[in-house]
Design a protein that fits this description.
4-stranded mixed sheet, alpha+beta
Length: 155
């Protein structure tokens, strides 16, 4: 079986500039506080490194300057990952999700991504959730979720 792949649009697309980034910013759906969650992923390992918040200006800077910029909710200021720690994030790709309300930024990570010194912010407190195998009844979730909703509606 032959697998078809789409042309590599990233290889042919022109980098965004301050002049061309505005349609992307306009399309992004920021929350009531004017913020967009940004998931940061390692370009090589595909590990999810961290999540931060971006406002319109942080999104513009990230997409046009090649370094990830966040909005700090606690300090009420912009911060560019690595400016003080040296643990920089260099943008390799970015994509809005299907609803335009979350951003995935693929980066080349230099040093630790987490302020604790961990490789990933999600390495700090791993959880052990219950898991279902594909052979378990209702493992696909669709039927069991629909059944639960239907029962709740009747009850």
């Amino acid at each position: 079986m032959t697998e078809q792949t789409a042309p590599d649009e990233a290889a042919t697309a022109q980098p965004l500039t301050r002049a061309t980034v505005e349609p992307v910013v306009a399309r992004a759906r920021f929350d009531a506080s004017g913020l967009l969650p940004a998931i940061i992923q390692d370009a090589v390992s595909k590990d999810v490194l961290m999540m931060g918040w971006m406002d319109e200006e942080a999104l513009r800077r990230t997409l046009t300057e090649g370094r990830v910029t966040f909005w700090s909710r606690s300090r009420q200021e912009y911060w560019r990952k690595g400016d003080t720690s040296g643990h920089a994030q260099f943008v390799r790709a970015a994509a809005l999700d299907c609803d335009d309300d979350a951003l995935l930024v693929t980066v080349e990570q230099v040093g630790a991504a987490c302020h604790t010194g961990a490789h990933s912010c999600f390495d700090v407190d791993p959880l052990s959730p219950a898991t279902a195998s594909s052979t378990d009844e209702g493992a696909d979730g669709a039927d069991s979720a629909a059944d639960t909703t239907a029962e709740a509606d009747r009850g």
